[in-house]
What we know:
- It contains 20 helices and 17 strands.
- The chain is α+β, with helices and mostly antiparallel strands.
- The longest helix is centred in the C-terminal third of the chain and has 30 residues, at 585-614.
- Residues 149-182 are annotated as: Disordered.
Amino acid sequence: PGEEYRVVQHRFGWREGDGQDSTFRFGKGTLRPQHLSNLSYADPNNEPKIDLILPLSSFKGTDKDNPNGATKPQIKPGLYTQQIWLGEKALSQKGKTAISQVIPSFPGGMKDYLEELESRASKLSEIQHDPREVAKLYCQKYEERKESQKSGVRSQELRGKEEEVVELESTDSEVESEEREDPRMYQLIKADVEGGHFQLVEMEKVRRELAKFIQKQWKEIATGYSLTFDRATIIPSKDLKNGEICVPWMEEGEKVLNFRAPFLNSNGMCLSVNKLVSDRLSPDGSDLEGVIVVNDETLEQINQRIEALKAQGIETDEIVPLQTESERQARDFDGDTLGVALARDWTNLALEVESRNLKEFAYAPTVKLPKQSFYNPDGSQPPFEEIAHFMSDSMPVGVTNNQVVGFVCLSSEIEILKTHGTKEQKLGYVLTVADHYRRLIEQAKDTESPKPLDPNYQKIIQDFIKLSLDPKNIDSALELNRQFYRQLIEAACFENQVAVDMFKSARAPDMELIAENRRYMYRDVNYIKDKKSPTAYLDRTIEPTGYSPVEVIINQTNQYYQESSLQSREISQFDQLFEGVEYSNQQKLAATQVKQDFDQVMVEAIRLDKRRQSDVGPSATFISTKGVEIEITNLVKSDFPDIWKSTGKQFNIHLKPNQTGTHHQLVAYAKLEGQQEYLPLGTLSVDFIRELKLQPGMVTTAKLTSFTPEISQDQVQALFKSAYLIANDFRQSIPPEQLPAMAAAAWAVSTTREAEERQG
């Protein structure tokens, strides 16, 4: 977009026979624009034109892990003439990223933003009952976010990478055009605000949109999501050493806070010095758009550099760190982004980061194991369906990530208590934790179903209980528990790394260990789950149960929260919008037909969108002995044995009420012939339950005929786009002189039913 030079996140490939290299290959990475005519050649008489430079690390599917040897030759460095397919996935862009993942790790950093968040909560409380002020804020927030994303490049969705990117508002699932047209709801509200009429903001559909917007604002304040850093795509440079970074829009020598999502513990936040290097520049000498340049020094290179300085008699305070910045943030250069901010704008956070980055306070490095191949020792592989099912299971990522966040919160809670807590609060905490640990010891002694304590943690728990018996030992008990949680954080970070790598490795996290370690939490950090509730800050607050950083923010926000009381007017009160405008019966019929076509597609789009949100993974289609087709969803959540290999087999299916609290009313339990018990298979959609009049207790025999892929966001967006295309085509077909009449006709056919229902 525009004239700026940008980095391209890409996918590439070539087929057999497409050039000098006759082997099918594919890969991914990033490309930066550069004049390759300036390259130095070893032989001045042989200077061929070069179009692309691809690192060997960009090539994927090399088959190097095959026990019987790779089935294709490895690509070697060199000059190739190839026909290549090259696809753009995304362009680099400067945007914003929320720091809500960072907040739990830095309790001292709260001093930088608590007052600001309180001010935002106070202002929101003052305006939230006035639809005019809410409408102005709605437009302001949209425009601010649009300004920060001028290029409009859609964000990437990386499994296991929970980067909280601040996106443009589009809360009613409305799809925008390829040119990034403003959402229609925004256009409607903006026109009402600019016109100064403030009439449309009291229509029910607009009121619902504004109510959702207010809810979102409260959530963002309460969870710290409204606090942001700048964000851009990273590329490497050999001109930067460990501890240096190049953020083009910041001044040379500035200290820069920087982190990469997913953020797990304080090791992931770096404090680097800004150094402007030439790798930031585009071919015309301007800064590359949406790019941050980072170092990629290894520990070996750091050591060699330090030794070289010493050999020259140059003294340096630099020491070889436990991990490089690249390792701490697990950087790669396939479109990864960093969040960055000036340290002087976040002084308390920067001081805490600097302290926690010291060797004596840093967490032990999270070991990143080599990717485990899916090959069996004999060179065979499991069926493709099994591999796909394994790699598509995102549940371990969420479970392990939540455990890391939970322990980090509990660790920071101790630091807040030590610094700001009263003696009574500290004592109450120690006694509560001691009671929890006593229950664990009792469970370990249970003769019928003992739950033994992990030997690594048994002594810590016993020592804590002893310390809790004497109030003089409160501070010692707090510190012991903080060190205990530190060990649990490190263990959880390792399992989380394994879980994230499941999308490219056959190794799975130890879910039994994760469940075991969860027992050592003396309480649930409930906001982690409650913040996802659709009713949070709509008609109720999130109620924190402790003193971790985010819970402190939530408590502060709750002091200002009130349920929004925006009111809508009856649709009949808007009749004067078209007072005196006449339309013909033919125009009304045309509007009626278009509305029917629009509604048909829109209803299907909304239905599919709801299913996409509730139905995870592929669904299975069964045909009963009576010829009735049954679709069962959420198969991946049940993990029925060998379901992916059972096409064509007969199942006995038993329908039971859903006890999990989700909106699915029925769960299908199933067994194959020869199996003794029914096992959970999946859920049934509301549509099928209504259509087939299904009830709990029903039993049927049915054959598994096929699987249907998971509903994608693209499918849903395509339907929404089709609906709006119908409306746009209708609008474009109307001659200018007929617009008032057709608008009046469309208004009449669109509001008749609602008016009749109110009168009835």
